[in-house]
Design goal:
Layout: H1 2-26, E1 51-55, E2 59-65, E3 69-75, E4 79-82, E5 88-96, H2 103-118, E6 126-133, E7 139-145, H3 149-163, H4 176-179, H5 183-186
Parallel strand pairs: 5-6
Antiparallel strand pairs: 1-4, 2-3, 4-5, 6-7
Length: 191
């Protein structure tokens, strides 16, 4: 009888331990479920209903310039959006410590807009620079007014004048010279 009694006591002890374990785990907080991150949360309102029609797609167009004749330009916008009204918006991503649009960004967007127009894609009066912060991945869109065709022609003529030695550029006051691929060949200022 004692063996049976010991067996029952051990059985009840095991059941009690099992009940305690179940009670402990059933009172734990439920696992934390993170809300999904919306990858387009940064998208500006102007592009919310737009459609992406190009992603790093090559473009080219011919520009006629006095003194240089016909010059073929090549470009590759990071993205091009088409608004519901049919106008196109160039967008460039930049990785930076601060969310700021620089004059070189405006120039780049102006040339891309010119190429879009030369390829029968009417453009909105604005483009976007999307600054992605170093390390955090936080994106900040900055709307940039797009300059017209005359300014695009000025930029290309200025570039050709620098490349051919007709003019010598001065050193920029910010860090633009550090990323310029032409400063050693054209600029008399140390970079």
């Amino acid at each position: 009888m004692t063996t049976l009694l010991h067996s029952v006591i051990w059985f009840l002890a095991l059941v009690a331990v099992a009940l305690v374990v179940v009670a402990i785990y059933s009172h734990r907080a439920p696992p934390r479920i993170e809300a999904p991150v919306d990858p387009l949360a940064w998208l500006p309102a102007e592009l919310y209903h737009a459609q992406v029609v190009a992603v790093e797609s090559d473009m080219n167009a011919v520009m006629s310039l006095p003194g240089y004749g016909r010059v073929r330009l090549f470009g590759r916008p990071d993205q091009v959006y088409r608004l519901p009204n049919g106008l196109h918006v160039p967008l460039e991503y930049k990785t930076r410590d601060r969310a700021v649009a620089r004059s070189t960004d405006s120039d780049q967007l102006a040339l891309q807009a010119w190429m879009l127009r030369q390829n029968d894609r009417a453009t909105a009066p604005f483009g976007f620079v999307v600054c992605q912060r170093n390390g955090s991945g936080q994106r900040t869109p900055i709307i940039v007014p797009l300059a017209g065709d005359e300014y695009a022609q000025y930029l290309v003529a200025r570039y050709l004048d620098v490349r051919t030695g007709k003019v010598t550029p001065g050193r920029a006051e910010d860090r633009r010279c550090e990323s310029c691929g032409h400063h050693q060949a054209t600029c008399n200022q140390p970079a």
